[in-house]
Amino acid sequence: MPLEHCKLTVKGRVQGVFFRASTQKKAQLLAIKGSVRNTSTGNVEIIALGEQQAMQEFIQWCKKGPLAAKVISVLVEPCDSSIDYTEFTIIK
Known about the structure:
Helices cover 24% and strands 41% of the residues. By secondary structure, the chain is of the alpha+beta class. It has one domain (3-91): Alpha-Beta Plaits (2-Layer Sandwich). The chain has a 5-stranded mixed beta sheet. The termini are far apart.
């Protein structure tokens, strides 16, 4: 199955609500590799690589996030990262 590689920018109340940790757990359940980090502008940035069906489920989850989050929007962009991810990590 072909792999999808994309960058997601999640906007809203997404910092200080365990968004990164919850994202990592969801990605691991779906066998998605990549990273998640907080940005200086208050958003969360995700680089994700996985099978198409898993990625669609992951993107849908990101539109809601964990219970304490209030996601306003998720921008999904194609991504060509030169990093060869072996797992899904939280960047601090």
